[in-house]
Design brief:
184 residues; mainly beta; Porin; 70% strand
Length: 184
């Protein structure tokens, strides 16, 4: 598994420098049932080929920075955008991933759908949803998520985004994510 991960990261990293992108993400999540906070950091490396976006996401999640339980994840993702009616771009996506913690690891899949909307003056809105589940449903990973994001283009190559999301199902949480993306 480690050799596959290294090969995938190298392939995506190589493609990123040939017209791709890299994103750094930081999320603060609150469990609505327990009021516990969780932090998550992620690195996304990808490339766009026309209306198709290919990426790999590596993330680390921890109940408190420097202490608490840690889980890690890896996702391979493909997202397809459609049309351009006045700048409005609907999209659908699929993800395959692996979640690893000290007590378990399992594979999962997800489906995304949403729409990106130009807001003017370098701002973009994103409204979307995700359905996620483990291949082995005994892992309690069935969730739905809705999100609302606003992005801003700092330059032609740099952008920032803030996203609010609500997840329900096997996870009941609200999250705020800050994302920086650099295009190459």
């Amino acid at each position: 598994m480690k050799k596959i991960l290294v090969a995938a990261v190298m392939a995506f990293a190589g493609s990123a420098f040939a017209g791709g992108y890299a994103s750094l993400e930081y999320s603060n999540e609150t469990n609505r049932a327990t009021d516990a906070d969780n932090i998550k950091e992620a690195l996304v490396v990808g490339m766009k080929d026309g209306d198709t976006d290919y990426s790999i996401k590596m993330e680390n999640s921890q109940t408190e920075f420097g202490s608490g339980s840690i889980s890690q994840g890896l996702e391979v993702r493909v997202k397809q955008s459609f049309g351009d009616k006045g700048g409005i771009r609907p999209y659908v996506g699929v993800r395959l991933g692996e979640k690893v913690s000290s007590s378990t690891h399992f594979s999962h899949y997800a489906f995304d759908a949403g729409v990106k909307i130009p807001l003017g003056a370098g701002f973009t809105g994103d409204l979307g949803a995700r359905y996620r589940d483990a291949f082995d449903t005994s892992n309690s990973y069935t969730t739905q998520r809705a999100h609302l994001a606003v992005g801003y283009d700092l330059t032609k190559q740099d952008s920032l985004a803030v996203r609010w999301s609500r997840t329900w199902g096997d996870e009941e949480k609200d999250a705020v994510r800050l994302q920086y993306t650099r295009s190459f």
